[in-house]
Structure formats: C-alpha cells, structure tokens
Design goal:
By secondary structure, the chain is mainly α. The protein has a domain at about 10-145: Hypothetical protein af1432 (Orthogonal Bundle). The chain has 11 helices and 3 strands, in the order H-H-H-H-H-H-H-H-H-E-E-H-H-E. The longest helix has 19 residues, at about 125-145.
Length: about 210
C-alpha cells in the first residue's frame, strides 16, 4: 500500500484552512473531527490501490471528515442529516458548488443509511460524483469508527491488500477495543463498494 507523505501544498490549502476554522467554531467536539480527518487521510493513502482516487478526491474527503459531526450543534438525532444541510448552506471558500454538495453528501453518509439514488441529495449528483461520494464515505465511516471512544487512541494505520480481503491494522497509543469494534462495525459500505472483506485489528505500539 502507498505510504503517506507530507503534503506542504495541502497544509497551505486556503479552502481546507477555512474548513478547519469552521470545524473549530461549529463542532462541539472538534478534536474528534480532526482525529477522524487524520485517520481518513491515512486510510485513503494506504488504500490507493483499491480506490484509485487522486489528490482532488482526498481534499474532498478531508473536508467531509472535518465537518461530519457539525450537525451535533442542532441535535444528536439525525446529526448526519443536519451536517449535510449545514454544509450546503455555507459558502466554503475554495470549493465549487458541486464540490460543496459532494462534501455535504460525504458527511451525511458517515453513519446510518448507505448512499441511495432514492435520497434527494445523492440523486442530484451526476453518476461520477455519486461514485466518488460512495467511495469516500466508505473510507470516512471506517475512520469515524476507529475513534469510537473519542480519545484519539489510534496513532497510525497499516493496510495489506490480499486477494479478496484487506487487513487494516490500527497502531494504538494504548489498548482500545472500543475503537477496533467501532471500525469493524462501520466496514460494511467499504466491503460493499470495493468487493473486499475488511479485517480490522489493533496493535499497541511502543513509543
């Protein structure tokens, strides 16, 4: 799997910088959002041989991950849909209208129902954008599950692609069965989208 490389240009991306500011201002628990974004980016980088996407898609994934939980400001119940509506209502500098709709859909699908053409926000996208949302939401769901305990126990991720399965190993600061269970619980969309069985295990790493 591809190793994750530092990206100075991305760190200086004004669009993502504005999304980070928004996450800090609006999300009641931004630390979780930033951890999920970190894990989503790592998982994206480790699985390029599976999803075949590039830097533009990674940027949209980062934005969706940073904003996936902002709907909590409205309420816990249906917060994924609240996040969708809030993102669509914001003017996100550096993101086109179509990109904003994709980011909103990625955030909406971080939990609950899988993408469906019966959903209004999804059916409004063209087929290429629908496929992109599905792939990126599949990654985001696992990343979100891997911070189920909301305590940033996962330090890094490794991924090994085999014939019909992908083995993901979470490098942990400390044992966190809750996070491993959370990742396993949310692997369904990834398995459905990429046709691979997903196995997630944890390994406590020495400092």
């Amino acid at each position: 799997m591809t190793r994750r490389q530092p990206d100075k240009a991305r760190a200086a991306d004004p669009g993502l910088a504005s999304v980070r500011r928004l996450a800090r201002e609006v999300d009641p628990e931004p630390e979780h959002a930033f951890q999920v974004c970190k894990l989503a980016e790592i998982l994206f980088d480790r699985t390029t041989a599976v999803h075949g996407l590039g830097s533009d898609a990674r940027r949209l994934l980062s934005a969706g991950a940073l904003l996936h939980d902002i709907g909590h400001t409205i309420g816990e119940q249906g917060h994924h849909k609240h996040a969708r509506d809030m993102i669509r209502s914001y003017d996100l500098p550096g993101f086109s209208g179509t990109e904003r709709a994709i980011v909103a859909a990625i955030a909406r699908y971080h939990r609950k129902a899988h993408p469906s053409k019966s959903h209004k926000i999804f059916c409004e996208l063209d087929s290429d954008s629908q496929a992109l949302v599905t792939r990126l939401a599949a990654i985001l769901r696992i990343a979100d599950g891997l911070d189920r305990a909301h305590d940033a126990a996962v330090r890094d991720l490794r991924a090994e692609l085999q014939e019909t399965r992908i083995a993901i190993t979470a490098g942990l600061h400390r044992s966190s069965p809750t996070d491993i269970w959370g990742g396993q619980r949310k692997r369904g969309l990834f398995e459905e989208t990429f046709g691979l069985e997903v196995e997630i295990t944890g390994e406590v790493e020495e400092r």
